[in-house]
Here is the input.
Amino acid sequence: MVTVRLAMAPRLPHLSPEAFQEYWRTAHADAASRIPGLRRYVQNHQILVAGHPVLPYPGFDACAELEFDSIEDHDAGFSSPEYLSAVRTDEDRFVDKSRFSVVLAEREMLLDRGLTEEPVKLLVGWRLHPASSPGALLEAADRWAERIHQDKTVLRHDRLVADPSWHSEGTPAACHHVDLLWFAELDVGREHLAGPAHEADLTTAGAAFGAARTLTRPVLFRAEGV
Here is the structure.
């Protein structure tokens, strides 16, 4: 399986959400796409209404998926001169790295009904209940997924499952796994949250201690030569 780095950070306070997203989508994307070994790069831009996220603020503004063929390629890319010079310097211009969080994970595809031209993506980051275990949380998440998949408006569902061994000597994983749900448009995603998702959350009670949710529009970039 490929290695996915889900990187999350809040914006610097002098930037508005709109200005942050504009810089991230343009200047920073050009720099980050040159990380050696990067196979796929997706920026998940929070959907804004009147300058604010449509869901409660999840604790970050940047949420990026960086995909590599292996954990070794990931480590080499983030140790490379290209990252340590151009990319890291550029990050200092717009993200608050003192509150940075990350998940190093493997991706699992759970459902694929095909995507529309401009879908929205709901990210659900699960927190482990102190009386539970990672295995019990994943079992509960599978029961949650069975309920969620009954909603035919869910176009795709993939999951990023953190690998504890990849975090053993570095930054702790921000959450134990992240579900990525895709919908045709914003209103459909909001209806899902008010109905099927709300009802299905009971299946994770006692295994999960809440979840961080954000509705986004994904922007896909690819590294040079891919």
